[in-house]
């Protein structure tokens, strides 16, 4: 691999839990050491490499950070005790991705749900630092991360969780959206905090329901998550279509935009966004936005003559939460 700028590669790890469960403390070690316990290996549910264009440089990109989302199905927290991740581009290895152990503490993997690991690249001076890459030539695309992360459960059992396929082929650094990743975009607590109502959720795999191959030809996934009142009469629904390319996503976005009357948003969300406040015929408000290769829509529905569970301003707040996690 040809390297444009060689200095030093320092990777630090920031851990944040996503999903409805948050960071639970989990049982004690004594509770964990039970012969009846059946520990299951965590798994990587999504991963991505994020890049950005370099000002006045057309032939290279900066690697800004890596995201790896690990789902832990166990009722116990895990601890990352070791990782061996190889960063490659153009088919050649560019070195191992590892945290800066000087400032690094073993991060916890949350129980009963996903945890997002963010590997951020720090750019420093070249003096006294070993080899690292500050920029990569576009001719070496796509970039990939492969290897494994070792997760230990209080010394009782450990698993080597494979990381295979985290890749990016453009400066957008988009990755496929999995079901677990989609469900983590917005939680019932997020919506209840704004609506001040007790809600339950219903998940939909819309792509699986479509029977016409032409309708799903350019889709990687098409998910929906409805936040409903107990009687099911009012709802706020999030839908995300993950397309196979930014051009496919943009084409869909432009088609949707042309079919209705939309208002431009004072503070845009994602790459492009619009809103509409209807409050008639059972429809409340709608927010749509484009984020790379993903089309996102949030809308409310309710019986005629009644108010939605969140108004337009609340819907915009939720849309910003989703945008921040994509």
Describe the structure.
The protein has 2 domains: 5-175, Sandwich (Immunoglobulin-like), CATH 2.60.40.1470; 180-325, PknH-like extracellular domain (Protein Transport Mog1p, Chain A, 3-Layer(aba) Sandwich). It starts with a strand and ends with a helix. A hairpin with a 7-residue loop joins strand 15 and strand 16 (272-280). The relative contact order is 0.15. The radius of gyration is 22 Å and the shape is globular. It is of the alpha+beta class and 326 residues long. The protein is built from 7 helices and 18 strands.
Structure, briefly:
The chain contains 7 helices and 18 strands. With 326 residues, it is an alpha+beta fold. The radius of gyration is 22 Å and the shape is globular.
Q: How would you describe this structure in keywords?
A:
326 residues, alpha+beta, Immunoglobulin-like, Protein Transport Mog1p, Chain A, 2 domains, seven-stranded antiparallel beta sheet, six-stranded antiparallel beta sheet, 7 helices, globular, disordered N terminus
